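During the reporting period the student researcher (J.K.) took over the structure-prediction task from the postdoctoral fellow and processed the backlog of single-chain submissions. One of the processed entries is reproduced below for the supervisory committee.
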Amino acid sequence: MKNISHAFIAIVIILSSCTQEVSKVGINELVVEAPFEMPAIKSPNFEECPKISIVDKGAVVGDKVATSKAIKQAIGEANASGCGTVVIPEGEWFTGKIHLKSNVNLHLEKGAVLLFSDDPEDYLPAVHTTWEGMECYNYSPLVYAYQCENIAITGEGELKAKMDTWESWFGRPPAHMNSLKRLYTLASEYSPVEERNMVNDTSHLRPQFIQFNRCENVLLEGVSITNSPFWVIHPYMSKHVTIREVKVIAHGHNNDGVDPEMSQNVLIEDCVFDQGDDAVAVKSGRNQDAWRLNTPTKNVVMRNCLVKQGHQLMAIGSELSGGVENVLLENCEIGEKAWFFHLLFIKTNERRGGYVKNIYMRNVDGGVLRNGVLGIETDVLYQWRDLVPTYERKLTPISNIYMSNVSGKEGKFISRIQGQEEKPVERVILKNVMLDSMKGDEALLNENVIDFNLEN
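J.K. obtained the following C-alpha cells:
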C-alpha cells in the first residue's frame, strides 16, 4: 500500500469535515448534579426532522457497496436540508465506513444490524485522527465525525465490527513498533500532523470504532455495539457529549468502552459495559501533542451504569498531558462475576505533565479486585520506557481525590499510592471505603502523599 501524498491529505481534510448547513435541530439541555460546577449538557433533538430510509437510496442487504453508497447519500441529503434522521431498518446491512455530518441522526431500528467490513481498504483515504493520544493520519474510524455539530446515533439496533483482519493486527511485531516510534518522534518534535501518515504496509494502527473528533452536541443513545478494532467510543476534543443506554460488548485488544479525550461536558449514564480493557478511560492527550493543543478533559459524569467486566472500572491516563479535572463516577453496579485490577486507577509518568484534580467516586459496591480499590502510579511507561527517549521531563500534579461508600468483594489493598518525592500526591479522602476480604498484608501501601485521610 503506497503512502498518501501531502497534497492528497489536504484534499481529505476538506472532504472529511462536516458541511455546516443552517441547523433545524432542536437542542435539549440537561442539568447534571455534581460536586463541581458543571454547565447544562446540550444534546440534539431530531423529533421534528424528516426521516430518510437507506432502502429508498438503494441499500441492499448483503451488498456492501450499495449499502455504503446509500448511507452516504442519505447522510448528505439530511445535512443539506438542515436536519434529518437516516433510518437503518431491520436486517443485517454490510457496510464500509460511515462519515457523519452536522444535523444528522443515524437511527438503527429494532432488529437492525450495521455490520462493518474488516477490509482496511474500506477505511481509506486516511483521515485526521489519533493513536493513543498522538494526532496522525490513519485509517478512518468505522464511524467518524469531524468538526460536526448536532449529531446522533440512536435506536435499538446494533453496530457490529467484523474482526478477522483486525484480530490479526492485535500483535505488536517489530514493524508495528517501529511505526509507533516514528509517530512518537514526529509528535515529540512538533512535526505538522499532515506529515504523520501512518497508513502503510507495516503500521497496522487499528482504527477506533466510533470517533467524534472536534464535535459539539453529540448524542449516542440506545444502540448496542459489538466488537471493535481498537477503542470503542472515542469523544476527542468534543463538547457536550451524551452517551445513554448504550450496551457495549468488546473483548479485543485495547477495547476500552469509552475514552473521553480532551473533551468537556460529557455524560455517560444507564449504560452496560462488558470490556476487554477499561470500562471508561479518561484521557487528555500525550506529551507534546497535548501541550500543543492545550485542551483539558473537564466535567465528565458517569452514573447508573452496569459494568460486567473490565480492567478498571475507571482509569485516568496514562495519556493525560492536557489535564483532567472534575470527574464523577457514581451509583454504578458491578456484575456478579466481574473482576478488575482497580475500581479507580490514575496513571502517569515523567513525560506526561498535565494534571489531575477533583476526581470523585461514590456509591459503588462489589467486584473482585486483582489489586485494590484505589491505585495511583506515577511511573507507568509500559513498553515506551526503553523504546523511545524522554524529550522533556514534566511531572503530573495529582490532587483532590475523593471516594465514598465504595467497596470490593476482595482485593490486596484499599489504597496503593506511589507518588513522586518531587511532587507528592495531595489530598486523598476515603470515606467508607472497604474490602469484604483482604488478601494482602497491608490495607494502605502509600508513599509520597500529603493529606491522606481514611474514615470508617
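The committee noted the following: The radius of gyration is 22 Å.
J.K. will present the remaining backlog at the next meeting.
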